[in-house]
Sequence to fold (807 residues):
Amino acid sequence: MSQAIIEFKEVTKKYGEETVLKNINFSIEKGLFYTLLGPSGCGKSTILNIIAGFTDTTQGEVKLNQKSAENLPPNKRKINTVFQDYALFPHMNVFENVAFGLKIKKMDKNKVKEKVKEALRMVQLENYETREIVEMSGGQRQRVAIARALINEPDVLLLDEPLSALDLKLRTDMQYELRELQQRLGITFIYVTHDQEEALAMSDEIFVMKAGEIVQSGTPVDIYDEPINRYVADFIGESNILKGQMVEDYRVAFGGNVFECVDGGMKPEEVVDVAIRPEDLVLVPENKGCINVKIDTQLFRGVHYEIIAYDAEGNEWMVHSTHKAEVGKQVALQFESYDMHIMRIGETEKEFDERIEAYTEEGNR
Amino acid sequence: MEYKKKEITYTPEQQQDIKKATWLSAIPGLGQFYNKQNFKGLLFLGIFILFIIEMITFGAGAFEGLITLGTVPREDHSLFLLIEGTLQILVTLIFLIFLGVNMMDAHRVAKIKALNPKNVNTTIQATFKNAMDDGFPYLLTIPAYLVMLFAIVFPVLVTLFVAFTNYDFYHIPPATLVDWVGLETFINIFSLNTYRDTFFAVFSWTVIWTLTATTLQLVIGVGTAVVLNQQFIKFKRVFGVVMLLPWAVPAFITILTFSNMFNPSVGAINTQVIPFINSIIPFLEISSISWKVDPFWTKVAIITIQGWLGFPYIYVLTSGILQSIPNDWYEASVIDGASSFQKFRFITLPQIFAVAAPIFVTQYTGNFNNFSMIYLFNEGGPGSVGSGAGSTDILISWIYKLTTGTSPQYNIAAAVTLIISVVVITISMLVFKRTRAFDMED
Fold:
């Protein structure tokens, strides 16, 4: 593990009686793309503010480059922020906006020119120096904001929901661009969003947050395939989540049947959540699959059909299929043992990791 | 795809027709009759006849009166003749515009007729419908233009004309006649010693007064707003109300109160405030100041009071602007290491100016013409700088004295009014052009 440039140790933040962050622990390595993902009000922006130096902690320690960051003013940290609404100054043109930080530092004028040019080249806005901010599109403003942050040569760039003001198409384009920029520059990005698609597409590591706590952290693939609980499974992508009961290791009962599965380490008879992704479900003729369902509704989503069906026990099933289904027809759902993901209720991330560690080997045998 | 204007070629006969229709309507209506638009023709001809009748019964005399301004004293009232003549100019102007529109109409309709006679509206209903459809915006705006012409252009024109006459206390109609004197009034202001000295004394004080008093109220207003909007200030609402007090009391009452307080022999400043200051600060001995007697101290007092009176408005305005500046901007500048002063200099101040610059300009032009402050405090006095003006008179209060005194000089007053207008309009236009505030397009 390479050096951590930002470290949170048991950080708690309270505003009066209200606890915004509860015992946050994580460390950020150099050169990776991190995402703080969670619904609004979960405390992710507070973490950014603590890193940037605008907010102090109630308890716990924050270390920057192995040194305590207490009382270190924002401008002494090699950290820059790209704000949600860009925070560009409308009374200055592009050059003046990007050069603002250097002007404050009273840098030599020719050197400023050179550096602004360089920064604008990095975000592909060459020759836009004399443009007024109001004349630029949302995506261009976004890039000016990034250039203004980059010109200070930060170690870490904090991005607070920077794409939320853009339209869908531009947002997708900017996801590619941001990821590409981060890899090219090798700067650490800490990205805050409530959009799970953005998080999955760009990140090296995701912290999923809920009500001031980090619920799960890991690579996008880990989090998508092995969500720790109902909350994460539901927040990241779509999931069919059913109550089930472990019969023994690798055998789970739900929907009136007992299925082979790949998870273990629970107590016998333990009540669990079973998650199956809609795209892992295949529609087959009645009685030919794992569970019989009746198709209730169907929506055409472009890439696929979204089909809602109900089984005999009344559980709702969402299926993503490229084939059209017939509403009202009795069919069966087919899935494999590795499509089922079993989650214990109330398990912490540490316990979860240990159990996965112990049982994955056997599960994959 | 490029749009190309269709070239229409008319045969020589058709061209002849179009020309005929256009020139026939030099007498409004005839061109329309020629185009077979009988109703329109009748209407236009009617308007023309009305104008001719007006011209014969009233207009001709009014024009003559405007030129001569009367020939027999006590029978001809020069001022009335001037006003009637000005009215007639406007009426004639309206008719000329009508004449032009009428000829253009005949020309356009003749062209349509040359292409296809069936496309020309000949019935009353069709004419009305066309007027309501295509002419609707014009029908709506014409009344506004007419009102503007008589309510704004008319008085301005009369003032303009008075400046070119010898309308003063030697020439008061109807006892005596007023005559045109051309540029003589203006030449007098700038060349006759008495007028010139007064004009430049008053003008230079007006400029100094405008710049210092307005700048003072802007600085106090912006300053208080910025300070009271800092986060560490408690009881913001209380301060907010206190700041508004000078604004809440009618200005003329405040000015009269201050005028009493600054009375050099019995006023509170000299009899109470200065002795009090002297008593609490050891070794300080300020003697009574001759407010309202010494021109310098009178000017100091007037400027200070105006700063006090004028700042609440700027304070309210600036407070509103400050609250609209996103906190992100300040955070962004803090990341770059900006100090408090740099934040104010690079973010706050430019934002205030971007929004409020036009209003700041109106503050300057407002003080340029701030009659009540000057006149109510000390009636423009003390002393005299000649031609009826006191040492603290600004142009507007001098005009007041020129027109209301025992020996009125309306022509000088009119000329000075025109000079004021030119100054105010020029400065306003220059600044407004620079601030983009009047860009109507987005």
In short: Residues 187-434 of chain B form a domain with the MetI-like fold fold (CATH 1.10.3720.10). Chain B touches chain A through 17 residues (CB under 8 Å). Chain B has two domains: 12-182, 187-434. Residues 369 and 396 of chain B are 6 Å apart (CA to CA).
